[in-house]
Amino acid sequence: MLEAIFVPQSVAVIGASPNTARLGHQVLRNIVENGYQGRIYPIHPTAEQVLNHRAYPSVLNVPDPIDLAVVVVGSEYVLAAVEECGQKGIKGLIIITAGFKEVGGEGKVLERQLLDLVHRYQMDMVGPNCLGVIDTVSCLNASFAAHMPNAGEIAFMSQSGALCTAILDWSKANGIGFSRFVSLGNKADVDEVKLLQAWNDDPHSKVILAYLEGINDGPGFIAAARQVTRNTPVVAIKSGATAAGSRAVSSHTGSLTGSEQAYESAFEQSGIVRARSMQELFDTAQAFAYQPAMTGNQIAIVTNAGGPGIIATDAIERTGILQ
């Protein structure tokens, strides 16, 4: 599922530019320089070559099939670009461009029109308004992140591109690796439900992490998470827990947030471990990634002093795992 996004045999970058200051140049460079072995097609209206790859004025001019298109053009050009992708038979889209639902008004209308095109041509789309997608299994860095993360066994999804950037920097400094890394942005099409379904029984991911600002399909999320958590731990951090935070979420990605009690119940029903901070999120992820899952509630504490043993006992009791 979502093979065109995670394991494409060919990638087009619409908006690739010979100008090193442009975002399209950075995205193309990330794909070219990080070991991706598939075919790469820069799309630029006039350039003959970008980063030593032949450029084409449109995806329709590319003679070969294309699996994935990364769109890095102004929002006013996105619909035309996606229309051509549909005509070409491209099945995977990553829309990095901003200026859609998150800005309200005309942006909301534009996003609805974009989604109509995606559905008409039966494409899968990440975004818009996102950092991009990184897959260390296929060595694909289809993002404008500053660097490629280390390979690892943690799959990560986030609505916040800036948070993705901070996590990539932090993980690099701390030697933490990822299998899949997805910035969802406005998640107009591919959302946390579709990603959970795609990552179910993923042999490359021992744990799934999620930064969530809002969930569009509550029942679908619970059903997908229940299926995944049978075999793979899912750890999530939910922002917008306070009234002020909820307002900030709405202005950030245009998400609607539900009640805190509803999310708490959804996580509990679906077997998701909830983290209260980013530090706790990654501490928990590392525990799941490097330690086998518990099969019972028989726990031994080995300590060389009473105090740490008492603290550990309290922590275990608070988790409820002895019940």
Describe the structure using short key phrases.
323 residues; alpha/beta; Rossmann fold; five-stranded parallel β-sheet; 11 helices; 39% helix; 19% strand
Give the SSE map:
Elements lengths: L2 H4 L3 E5 L8 H11 L5 E5 L5 E2 L2 E2 L13 E4 L3 H14 L3 E4 L10 H15 L3 E3 L5 E4 L4 E4 L6 E9 L2 H14 L2 E7 L8 H8 L7 E6 L5 H12 L4 E5 L4 H11 L6 H11 L2 E2 L3 H13 L15 H14 L4
Parallel strand pairs: 1-2, 1-5, 5-6, 6-7, 10-11, 10-12, 12-13, 13-14
Antiparallel strand pairs: 3-4, 8-9, 8-11
Helix pairs in contact: 3-4, 6-7, 7-9
Folded structure, characterized:
This protein is α/β, with parallel strands linked by helices and 323 residues long. It folds into three domains: 3-129, NAD(P)-binding Rossmann-like Domain (Rossmann fold), CATH 3.40.50; 150-290, 3-Layer(aba) Sandwich (Rossmann fold), CATH 3.40.50.261; 294-323. It is built from eleven helices and 14 strands. The protein has helices at 3-6, 23-33, 75-88, 106-120, 161-174, 192-199, 218-229, 243-253, 260-270, 278-290, 306-319, and strands at residues 10-14, 39-43, 49-50, 53-54, 68-71, 92-95, 124-126, 132-135, 140-143, 150-158, 177-183, 207-212, 234-238, 273-274. The protein has a seven-stranded mixed sheet, sandwiched between helices. A five-stranded parallel sheet has the order 2-1-5-6-7, sandwiched between helices. The chain starts with a helix and ends with a helix. Residues 244-256 have low confidence and may be disordered.
